[in-house]
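hiii so um. not sure if this is the right channel but i have a protein structure encoded as tokens and i wanna go backwards to a sequence. like what aa goes where. can anyone help
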């Protein structure tokens, strides 16, 4: 599967942004999907995930502010980000693994990655 992120940009602290990930292929609904980010000088970290069957998982740092969702009919994954903080700045990556029933925030539980989209909060 190929993943292409979009919707990144610059926003003031306290603002909102929605980023998207378009996936190729016809079996999108069978994939575990996740959002990861990598800030300047930091390791890549899991932000939000949604299993192919059920369940969502969020990093503690974004709980209550970010919402992951998917449109299986259009093969699109979304991340709605509200109350953004400067520490949310980074490159946001979409990731996928076929057959992942539940969510996961571990980079090791994904096989496909997008090229990333930059989010800057100032």
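sure thing!! here u go:
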């Amino acid at each position: 599967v190929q993943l292409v992120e979009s919707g990144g940009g610059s926003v003031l602290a306290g603002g909102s942004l929605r980023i998207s990930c378009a996936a190729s292929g016809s079996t999108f609904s069978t994939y575990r999907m996740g959002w990861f980010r990598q800030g300047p000088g930091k390791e890549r970290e899991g932000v939000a995930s949604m299993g192919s069957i059920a369940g969502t998982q969020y990093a503690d740092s974004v709980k209550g502010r970010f919402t992951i969702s998917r449109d299986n009919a259009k093969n699109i994954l979304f991340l709605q980000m509200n109350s953004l903080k400067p520490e949310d700045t980074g490159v946001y990556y979409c990731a996928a693994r076929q057959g992942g029933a539940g969510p996961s925030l571990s980079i090791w539980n994904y096989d496909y990655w997008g090229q990333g989209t930059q989010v800057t909060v100032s």
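oh and The first strand starts at residue 3 and ends at 6.
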